[in-house]
Model the fold of this input.
Amino acid sequence: MKPYYTQMDAAKMGIITPEMEIVARKEYIDPEELRALVAKGEVAIPCNVVHKAISPEGIGTKMRTKINVNLGISGDAKNYDIEMQKVDLAHKFGAEAIMDLSNYGKTNTFRKKLIEKSPAMIGTVPMYDAIGYLEKDLLEITAQDFLRVVRAHAEEGVDFMTIHAGINRRAVESFRREGRKMNIVSRGGSLLFAWMMMTGNENPFYEFYDDVLDILHEYDVTISLGDALRPGCIDDATDAGQIAELIELGNLTLRAWEKNVQVMVEGPGHMAMNEIAANMTLQKRLCHNAPFYVLGPLVSDIFPGYDHITSAIGGAIAAANGADFLCYVTPAEHLRLPDVNDVKEGIIASKIAAHAADIAKGVPHARDKDNEMAEARHALDWERMFEIAVDREKAQAYYESTPPAERHTCSMCGKMCAVRTTNLILAGEKVEFCSEL
Done:
């Protein structure tokens, strides 16, 4: 029997786990250096002991930027076959995490299938599932009921859970005193706020935080401290409510580490570009350099249908300045449940942001594929370019949609291709066009 429950237990005991070995190989880092980062809480390896299909990943300091794909059914769109197609897309394009945000009916059948087959980390927000799981209205749910849902998700094999423990009475007071254009836009946060206001009680996840941590420790579930008061429009960014909750999250991070529960901290949200870098620094400082998980940030509010782009811009800036984990945003954000095509667009946009940030941060080997692409383009080796491309099918379809007369060029420049021209001159050959017309 293992002498530890969690990765942090092991790290603090000086033990390099098999999961750490795998992550160290993926990240080109010495296993002992990784162990030290896990012990300090600067790297999390979300890996529930029940999730046997997982390929462990590290999130945090000196790690590649990871991305998460949200999926799940709602009352208006409840086709689990379509959701499983989205899962397959997430696997195909290398998403490291999938969050099942289903909020309708009994969701555990789908979630168990997801955990059984997925090598990606699986996350949930137990608050979303509480009403369907418990079959109670919000006002009838007790604090212990909420803990029952947390335990159920842990037992099923969920690797990380978003728990909105920071929206306590102090944070709510700051939010209500200042006011906002968009108020609370977090679904879980709004439900907890409503429950607190209707019952007059403290946030149950804050009041019984130690009980939550005990459940998570038993299964090595990483707590992702949710930002219930994240800004829902750029005008609400970096306000008193967001910062008040962030201060609470910093304290909750330390309390989790004391119990050897791994932590991620969630961040904004909607935010103008000029505020992002400062927010990353503030978040890391107040939360003791715990891994930072951001939604976006979306850098503008007026592009519905294109929010995968507004998010990718913010995500690239955020990750280049310290964010470790990006939650994808699809073109359907603010409009509908995303379909399969929306999910693909969201994944690719988020992968672009993460990869661009890794290049900027000098992550080991981040440029390797880019350099291979440059070599293939220099050689005008189209087959090799398609092999390297993240989305081979789209790249090849674009190229072949307007076939060039000259096989080694594309239809943009044809025989006037700059690469072809330079290659010919450097090879000592003539460049002639008129004779070829």
